[in-house]
Amino acid sequence: MNPYNEIKHTKGFIFNIQRFSIHDGPGARTAVFFKGCNLRCVWCHNPESIEFKPALEFYPQKCIGCGQCFTVCPTGAHIIMRFGENGEPRHVIDRKKCTRCLKCTETCYSGALAGVGREVTAEYVVESVKSDLPYYERSDGGVTITGGECMVQPDFLYAVLAGCKESGIHTAIDTAGNVPWDYFERILPLADMFLYDIKAASPEAHERLTGAENTRIIENLRRLCKSGRRVWIRVPYVPGFNDGELTGIADLLADISDEAARAGHKNALELVEVLPYHKLGVSKYEALDINDPTEGVEPPSDTEINRAVELLCSKGLNARKS
Questions:
Q1: Domains in the chain, start-ordered, CATH in brackets?
Q2: What is the pTM of this model?
Q3: Which helix (H) or strand (E) holds 195?
Q4: 154-170 residue pLDDT tens
Q5: What is the DSSP letter of 27?
Q6: 10: how many CB neighbours lie within 10 A of its CB?
């Protein structure tokens, strides 16, 4: 009996399937974004991915004032408030009342309201990515499972990977590695490569920046580099937050690479990518009505990124700007 048939109805939460991605592994890829994360990175550019439950985004500049959302909202979360000296009326959402039933999004014709996140089966994901098989074959691409943090839904992840492998699709896992090692062991036979985030070198800085220290993350990376799987490291570069960690990160990765080489896995860290901070998440924070911890932070200059790449290369690592 086909093992995948036994698990293809496993359910999990996703918030996007993005086709023709060229920044999430080799070749043309389909990126599947799992919802939910067990870190709280201060620079997160996908804040809608953090919670497991659905999120409601509101873009007031798109609102045409039809009033349909007021009619269908069961808790009265949509209200009119007046602002400024002239009492300008504005449509706002009382987030304390909102249960995220998303009924309002079904009646919003202008796209001012958008629901983020849904529960689907592994079969749904696999069938979705299979439609891009011709593009994978021509570009040596495949599917990249990302998030959020895809590895905090281990059963769903396993089922999706099993279906992709059955269809001959190259699989990559994008993870921050903050899960038990046995989660990795379970999927190693099904994952062709890993995109592994390293955000800080010191446990104190990592906890300050992400809400969790990094002992388990680093140990998992050491083990992963001895597994025989391809590993690409991703280092976010956020001025004023983790730019002071770059030297420590370079030393850490060089040590892990040397350790893996001594164990017979030369060039285990195939590539180190430096990911410059960008401001694409700003509008999402506004739409979710939550504070942006990086307000006022500007993207790093090319000079800063080039220095970071040069530092990593000076440690014998194959590094580049993403």
A1: 3-52+118-321 (3.20.20.70), 55-116 (3.30.70.20)
A2: 0.93
A3: strand 193-197
A4: 999 999 999 999 999 99
A5: S
A6: 18
